[in-house]
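Incident log, support desk, overnight shift.

02:14 A customer reports that sequence design results differ from what the structure should imply. Their input is reproduced verbatim below. On-call engineer (initials T.W.) acknowledged and began investigating.
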């Protein structure tokens, strides 16, 4: 086995392992009342009733749809995405600047491979989505360097922390291949301010570093802070990633999108689409789904209303358990503070609590350790599901937090 091959071998991440354990034994109030309640997977289960009629409707199929298409996305598909994505952020997008691949992880992996050499650093504001470790490290061989954000100011994006991490890494003699940001943020569900995004674009340009912005929740912001897309800056060093998994609740379709005006990077990533293209059938399905701008507008508006309602439902339940508000503004989850229920502020104490929640209460929620923050005791809890599932999870969670000998204070 090659050293490269060995990097792919090993235990799956906690997020993946816990997901498949939970979905293999799902809670059902009548058929399986002792099953797992899965609030650890970031999926939107609130809008299938809106999608189903359009997905189930008869659609045209041409001979071209059954043969090889342009590997980084057909012209018609990229034009459709440019129209929808550009409209959502009020920016005119050129389809020639877009690349489609089979999921945002495939896009991020390809961008990492094109911007980083083995051992290069990628600076990421932390906590951050744990899948970035696979996306940036396994094939490209880059190393993630966290730029820690602080709970004291609600994990606000700090360009200064990013600059400090870049300078410290370079002082060690290491090359910084890129800065990677998730916006809106995963796991904190916060929306970064327009000023912070603009400042990060500016400082990365001045420091000569690629800025990769994962905007997979761009159309799922429902709070008071307006979403500010990095697409608005039109900078050659800024590369924006988006997909259909979250905003359109089509995670199973596996469609990721890259926007870049950098000619060399576009060529390098488009060439890698040979390895992970989107099927022409899926492209045709999405083209037909998005043919009606009025339907898109109504769908996204209703999705945001439902996300806000499900978030509020979770927040009220957490409040009844004596837990503080999470401040969630976007996405399908909240970042809950369970630090008061750790006997000591250590990763071992967090893992013990996670194990009790998962093994005893059979609730799947994701702990801070998998998001590479520096404060144990935070948990990401998905709320984009039926209220009854949230209620069942909170009932079980309350029993764990209030049980004798749990070390809470």
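02:41 Re-run completed on a clean worker. Output:
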């Amino acid at each position: 086995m090659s050293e490269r091959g060995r990097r792919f071998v090993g235990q799956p991440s906690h997020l993946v392992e816990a997901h498949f354990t939970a979905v293999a034994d799902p809670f059902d109030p009548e058929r399986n009342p002792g099953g797992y309640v899965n609030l650890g997977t970031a999926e939107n289960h609130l809008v299938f009733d809106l999608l189903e009629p359009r997905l189930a409707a008869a659609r045209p199929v041409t001979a071209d749809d059954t043969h090889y298409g342009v590997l980084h996305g057909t012209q018609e598909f990229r034009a459709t995405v440019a129209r929808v994505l550009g409209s959502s952020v009020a920016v005119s997008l050129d389809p020639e600047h877009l690349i489609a691949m089979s999921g945002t992880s495939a896009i991020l992996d390809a961008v990492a491979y094109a911007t980083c050499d083995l051992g290069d650093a990628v600076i990421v504001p932390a906590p951050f989505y744990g899948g970035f470790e696979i996306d940036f490290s396994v094939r490209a061989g880059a190393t993630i360097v966290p730029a820690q954000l602080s709970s004291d100011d609600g994990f606000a994006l700090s360009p200064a922390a990013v600059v400090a991490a870049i300078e410290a890494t370079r002082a060690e003699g290491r090359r910084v291949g890129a800065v990677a940001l998730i916006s809106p943020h995963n796991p904190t569900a916060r929306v970064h301010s327009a000023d912070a995004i603009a400042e990060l674009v500016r400082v990365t340009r001045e420091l000569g570093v690629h800025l990769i912005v994962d905007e997979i929740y761009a159309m799922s912001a429902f709070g008071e802070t307006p979403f500010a897309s990095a697409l608005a800056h039109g900078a050659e060093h800024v590369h924006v990633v988006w997909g259909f998994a979250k905003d359109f609740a089509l995670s199973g379709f596996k469609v990721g999108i890259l926007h870049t005006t950098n000619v060399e990077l576009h060529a390098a990533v488009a060439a890698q689409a040979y390895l992970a293209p989107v099927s022409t059938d899926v492209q045709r399905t999405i083209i037909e789904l998005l043919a009606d701008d009025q339907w898109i507008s109504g769908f996204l508006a209703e999705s945001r209303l439902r996300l806000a309602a499900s978030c509020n439902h979770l927040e009220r339940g957490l409040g009844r358990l004596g837990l503080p508000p999470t401040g969630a503004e976007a996405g399908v989850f909240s970042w809950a503070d369970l630090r008061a229920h750790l006997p000591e502020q250590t990763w071992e104490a967090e893992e013990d609590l996670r194990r009790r929640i998962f093994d005893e209460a059979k609730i799947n929620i994701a702990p801070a350790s998998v998001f590479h923050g520096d404060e144990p005791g935070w948990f990401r809890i998905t709320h984009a599901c039926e209220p009854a599932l949230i209620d069942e999870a909170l009932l079980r969670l309350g029993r764990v937090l209030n049980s004798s000998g749990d070390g809470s204070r």
